[in-house]
Amino acid sequence: FRSMRGAGCHEILAACLRKNGKPLDVSRAPDRRVILCNFVEPQSGRLLDIVTVIFYRSPKSYTGEDVAELV
After folding, report:
1. Max intra-chain CA distance, the chain
2. Which of 13, 26, 52, 67 has the fewest Cβ atoms nearer than 10 Å?
3. In this predicted structure, what is the pLDDT of residue 37?
């Protein structure tokens, strides 16, 4: 389990997430829903792991910031 929080965390994480072979569009990803994704090395696209991610958007997260949780 890992989490990221703060301004820009969703966009930073998006560089590493692929859904159906395409970069995950975090602006369209639903809040508080589990999304199954491939976690890749951003430059090469090499698959590193398969993860689930949950996005929480400010101000409706526990900390009031943008948050992303990876499992």
Report:
1. 34
2. 52
3. 96
